[in-house]
Amino acid sequence: MTMPAIEVRAVHKTYGVGRKSREVVQDCSFAVADGSFTVVIGPSGAGKSTLMRLIAGFERPSKGEILVDGRPVKGPGPDRQVVFQETALFPWMTTRENVAYGPKARGDYTPDARHLAARLIERVGLDQFQNKYPSQLSGGMQRRAELARAMVNRPRVMILDEPFRGLDAMTKKLMLEYYSALSRESKRTNLFVTTDVDEAIFLADRLLVMTHIPTRVRAAIDVDLPYPRQLAGFASDDRANDLKRQVLSLLHEEAARSFGAGGVAADFVAAYRSRMAEEST
Amino acid sequence: MTTDVLVGAAGETARPIRRKAAPSASARATRRALVAYAVVLLVWQLGATSRGWLGHPLPYLGNLPAPSAVLEAFRRLIVDPGYWQSGYASFVRVLTGFGAAVVVGVPLGLVMALNPRIRRVVFPVFELLRPIPPLAWVPAAIIFWPTQELSIDFVIFIGAFYTMVLNVLGGADAVDVRLIQTARSMGASRWNVFSRVVLPAVIPSIVVGSQVAIGVTWEVVVAAEMISGGGSGGGTSSGGGLGFFIWNSYVGGSYPQIVVGMISIGIAGYFSSAALRWTGGRLTRWAGARS
Q1: Are residues B22 and B113 in the same domain?
Q2: Is B104 left (phi over 0), alpha (psi -120 to 50) or beta?
Q3: Could you tell me which chain B residue has the CA closest to the CA of A76?
Q4: Which among B185, B189, B290 has the least Cβ separation from residue A135?
Q5: What is the pLDDT of residues A23-80, one digit of tens each?
Q6: H or E segment and range at residue A82
C-alpha cells in the first residue's frame, strides 16, 4: 500500500469564539489515494469548501492535521492547485499571461515551462485565444484557461471546488467529459467537490459523502464503473443507478437534518424520501 | 472523444471587445448636444436683452450679461496675456495639489488596506479630518505655509486627497481574495502578489478616484484664490488665477468677464477630466473588454 496523497486526520474547524462560534468541520478524517479521482459530495452549505481551503492551506485547522505526501500542510503551495467555483482568472492578464503566471511568479519560467504552458493552452483548445482577456472568453473557455493555469504548476493534487457550477448544461457536460479524459491521462490526484450526483458518479473512483454542517465523512463509496463512462448511458446502467440511489438516500438524510427535526420542511423531505424508496423497490 | 471536445471548443467564438458606438450614433449625439447648447444660449440671450424687446427686464434673467456681451469680452480677453496667465496659474495649482494628492493618497490608501494595524491608527484621524471642508482650511493654511502659493496648493490637495484615499482603500478592500489565494498557492512572493495582483486590481479605483478628485480641485482652486486674494501678486494680469480673475471682474463691475471666467473653468475642468478618462482607459484596457 503506497502512501496516500492526502491524509486528513481528526480535523476540526471552528469560526468565531464563545457563544457566537460555529463549528464547520467536526472530527473529519479520510485519506485520498495517490492518483485517485476522489469526489466529495454533500448538501450545499455543509462545509465542503472550508475543508478544501484547509487542504489548500489557505486556512489552518482548529484541531487535527492534514498531510500531503506525508508532510503536514503549513500553507498554500504549488503542489496543491485550487480551481474555484467561479472564475478566478486575473482579469488584467491575457490567457497566455494567466497560464504563465505561476512559473513566472516563482522565477521558474524556463524554456521547459514555456513549452508546457504553450502545450497546455493548445490542449485546452485556447491557442487561438491566447491574447484575449478573460472577459472576452465564454464561461467554458474561462474554466479551461483556469485548468491550464493550475496544471502548468505540475501539482500533486488538483482541488476543484464545484468548478463547473454556473455553466449551461451542454457546456457543463462537455467540460465533465473533457476533464475526465484529461485527468485520466495525467494520473494526477484529484479532489473534486460537487453537489450533483450524476457528476459525482461520472467522475469518481471514490466518493466521499459528507454530513450536513459540521461536516465529516458520512460514507465512502467505491465507484467501480468501467471507463470510458458515458453520462448519457447512466440512465440504463443498473450499477450506476444503484450507486445513485445509495448516494441520494444518504444526501436526503443529511439535507433533512439541515431543515431541523419536526418542521414542515422536514416533513416534506421525509415524504419525498419515502416516495423515492417506493420507486426504487 | 477528447478530440471532439477540442473541436467543439475551438469552434466557440470569443466575445468581441465592445467597440465604440457607430459613427451615425455619435453624430446624432453631437447633434443633440449642439441643439441643447443652442437652446440654452437662445433663452439666455432673450432673457438678458429683455429690457430692449420687452420694455422692462425679466426677473433674474434680465440682470445677466447677454451671451453677445460675453462673446465680446471673450474676444477681447483671448488676446490678453493676463487672462492666459490667470488660467495658467490656476492650472499649475490644480496640477500641483492634485499630483500631491495622488502621490500621497494612493500609497496611504494601499497601506491602510494591506496593514490592519496602520489602518486602526490612521483611519480614525482620517475620518475626523475628512468632514472639514477644504475651504475651512484656507485661513489655517495661510498661517501655516510660508507662501500664499503653497497654502493654495495645500487647500487643493485637501480637496482631492480624501477622495483618492477612500477610492484606493475601497478598491483594495474589494480585491477578490481568491485571486490572492491563487497567486500565493502558485508560490508567488508577497511583492509579486502586490505588484501583479493587488495593484492592477486597484487601478480602476484609482482612475475613478482621480476623475472625481480633479473635479473637486477645480471647485476648490477658484474659491481658494478668491478668499486668499489670489496669491502673491494679485491683480488680473499677474498670477492671481481664474478665481481671482472672476472676483476682480466682479469688484470692477465687468460682468461679462465673470461669465468668461466661469466658462473657462468649466472648459478646463472638462478637458482635465477627459485627459484622465483617456489615460485611465489606456491603463485598464482589459476592463474595457467587459460587456
Answers
A1: no
A2: alpha
A3: B185
A4: B290
A5: 787 888 888 888 888 888 877 777 888 888 888 888 888 888 888 888 888 888 888 8
A6: strand A80-83
Task: Give every CB contact of residue A156 below 8 A, 6+ residues apart in sequence.
Answer: A5, A68, A69, A79, A80, A188, A189
Q: Residues B275, B154: one domain?
A: yes
Q: For chain B of 291 residues, list the mean pLDDT of each consecutive stretch of 10.
A: 40 53 77 92 88 80 85 89 88 93 94 92 92 89 88 92 93 91 89 92 92 91 78 51 87 88 91 90 75 41
Write down the pLDDT at residue A259.
66
Q: Scan for cell 506525508, then name that residue.
A: A70
pTM of this structure:
0.77
What is the four-CA torsion angle of B14, B19, B25, B27, rounded to 10 degrees?
-160
What is the ipTM metric for this complex?
0.80
- Do B133 and B32 belong together in one domain? no
Task: For residue A192, count other CB atoms closer than 10 A to its CB.
Answer: 24
Best mutation site among B3, B4, B5, B7 for testing chain A: the one with the most A CBs within 10 Å? Answer: B5
Q: List, for residues A113-126, the tens digit of each pLDDT value.
A: 888 888 888 888 88
pLDDT, position B25: 81
For chain B, the domain total comes to 2
Q: Do B89 and B59 lie in a common domain?
A: no
Last residue of a domain, one of B17, B39, B64: B64
CB contact under 8 A, B185 and A138: no
Band of residue A162 on the pLDDT scale cut at 50, 70, 90: confident
Of A56, A135, A153, which is closest to B289 when you measure between CB atoms?
A135
Write out the three cell numbers for B258.
465673470
Whether residue B240 sits in one domain with residue B181? yes
What pLDDT sits at residue B124?
92
Which residue does chain B place closest to A55, by CA atoms? Answer: B185
For cell 459528507, name the residue: A210
What is the radius of gyration, based on Cα positions, of chain B? 25
Same domain, B174 and B233: yes
Query: How far from each other are the two terminal CA atoms of chain B, in whole angstroms?
Result: 33
Mutation pick from B13, B193, B286, B290 vs chain A, by most beta carbons of A within 10 Å, is B286
CA distance B65 to B262: 13
Contacts of A128 in chain B (CB under 8 A): 10
pLDDT given at position B10: 42
Identify whether residues B89 and B107 lie together within a single domain: yes
- Cα distances from B4 to residues A168, A230, B26, B74, in angstroms, run 18, 14, 44, 71
- What's phi and psi for A66, nearest 5 deg? -125, 130
Residue B18 neighbours by CB distance under 10 Å:
12
Domain with B22, as residue range(s), is 1-64
Supply the pLDDT for residue B8: 41
Asked if B284 and B226 sit in the same domain, the reply is: yes
